[in-house]
Amino acid sequence: MIRAAAQRLTIILLLAWMPAALATAAPGAPQTRGEPPVDARMLDGAAASAPVITDNVRARLLAERAVVAPGDTLDLALVLDIRAHWHTYWRNPGDSGEPPRIRWTLPDGVVAGAIRWPLPTPIAVGPLVNYGYSDRAVHLVDIRVPADWPVGEPIPITAQASWLVCEEACIPEQGSFSLTLATDAAAAAPPSAAVRRLFATARAALPEPGVVAARLTRGDDALSLRVPAAALPASVQAVHFFPDAWGLVDHAAPQPWRLQTGADGAHLLLELLPGDAAASVPATGLLKVTSADGVRGLRLDATATAAAAPGPAATASAAAPAAGALGLPLALAFALLGGLVLNLMPCVFPVLAIKALGLAGQGGAPFSTRALHGLAYGAGVLGFFLALGLLLLALRAGGAAVGWGFQLQSPLFVTLMAYLFVVLGLSLAGALTLGTGLMGLGQGGGGPAAGHLGAFGTGALAALVAAPCTAPFMGAALGYAMTVPWPAALAVVLALGLGMALPFSLLALSPGLAARLPRPGPWMETLKQALAFPMFATAAWLLWVLAVQTGPGGLAAALTGMLVLAFALWVQERARYARAPWPRVGVGAAVLGLGVALWLGLGLAGRDAAAPGVTATGTAAGAGDSAALPAQPYSAARLAAARAEGRPVFVNMTAAWCITCLVNERVALGRPAVARAFAEGDILYLKGDWTNRDAAITEYLAAFGRNGVPIYVYYPPAGAPRVLPQVLTEGIVLTQIGAG
Description:
This protein is an alpha+beta fold. It has 4 domains: about 1-205, Sandwich (Immunoglobulin-like); about 210-300, Immunoglobulin-like; about 330-600, no CATH class; about 620-740, Glutaredoxin. Helix content is about 40%, strand content about 20%. The chain has 18 helices and 26 strands. The longest helix has about 45 residues, at about 530-575. The protein is globular and about 85 Å long. The model is unreliable at about 1-30, about 305-325, about 435-445 and about 610-625 (pLDDT under 50).
């Protein structure tokens, strides 16, 4: 597909130009064709960072005022003055590219909002079309100061920003920006005329507040978008639709339009060519309208249940807590507590059952053996969390919008996990024999060294299964970890792993427990075989997640791979003790079967979106709901429309691979009393499905200082949103929605 080819081309160009991207300063500012770059002569009455100058961009972080009062909100601007003929990107970059990203380091209590994106422009690059900015891009972000901030105490602000700048080649660039705001209860001197003009121009380039209800008719090879003429300015000269999500439309296709009058009144009809994911992504976006009066941007919601909502649009970040407000000591404490609670989550029960078998096998063992066993288990947990934390931070540093549990958003990873649990189940059931180093999981065979290696493997496996889960206290801690420098972030992730490893490690070191452990005997073989069935149950759950992600075709491929792998391992087991050359034949069969299974799994690697016909409310997001509590797919536009109407909204961000999410939906959100309360209160129930990667949901989570699901947010008819606990009960939900 064009998208995939463009991404591969971008990667090749990035590698070719990487040395240039590493330069943090250039001899002079890049030559631009627009307004002159922001310099010191413009900054009277404002606070600004030192400029970051590369070969292609001159960047600066600028505050509209240098002095702020406690309780105030003011705008910051990340100003990118771009080299002539080069461009940066909008939040949906089009056929290729990456949008700018900002990571804030703020004092406790100070909150940064989301980036407010100016109207983009289509940028043709060969046969592709990207959405972005040339000459100058100004990205506004509001900063809110708490009302109890001490007057006279300055507010230091640091931001790590990254952006991709392209012509024919693309170069990733980044910069660190720091500025300090003074605080005073008295009014500050106004900024210079140049600064006022820059911020006024930036606000004028933003879409208008509110959401316009549109209608989208989907055909086999065409999309028809209807926008009420009453929402448009007079004398429309040109229009262009920018979808919020990639895949709704073919970005490079022409967009012919006309004004017409029908039975449903006067409207603008826009003809669009469907994109690769037109059937599965929300029909929301931005309509850029050029008229005799200038250029306007209108937010559109063209989903079936859209409703017009004039007036200011509420954003998900309203009253959101700051991740940075947590502080490192509290974040470490929350991570440790979250890791402890993680041992009680349903997702880790199968592996913990194996660990319990391992502890039972230590009955009568000397203290030194049990101590090493417990430490090896803890090392396995911490080793996995360290590797996962490093990978997550590296991906986010590279601009990827990923969060906690991102690995299970990959169909390939889900398939490999299902293979692993089937193989472990077969081994526990006695159908095949794995090496003692691997299947020392829960067994003492193979000598002390093999048992310790098995304990390490059990710890890593427990962490692997537990990683997608989000226990209480974890959400805030992980959200904080994604906003601080990497040493502090890794400390939080390791504290989470320590909390998970602590109970079993302490049990292994407890002399009192050793006296109560039963002696090993034949009963352990029966228990070991019984533990095969939780392994098979976990594999079945993973296959269900895969079906949600890829549809029946992906499920069939994984089942075929699983069958081939199981048969090959059975052949290898049968040939193990036969005469030559059958043992070699068995090994060859095992290698061949593994290769075929991996080949089938690799065929799922590119399937990172739900299959056609699979919707959020029809699968993962609705799996646990009662039919009495109907949900609508989440979109920022739909949320904003309901908020503008004054209608209460309940947002549920979930995923098929999140066991906590599914349990909450079964025991709390699916209860008849909750459904009645939602109906009586006319509460709009919005559900976001994060089973596959979704940048809009990732952005929503980040607005509340979170990095994973679940998150439940109730928006009362008036006032700030309320974030509910991550583990719900019927009473908690009824109390929260009844309090509004």
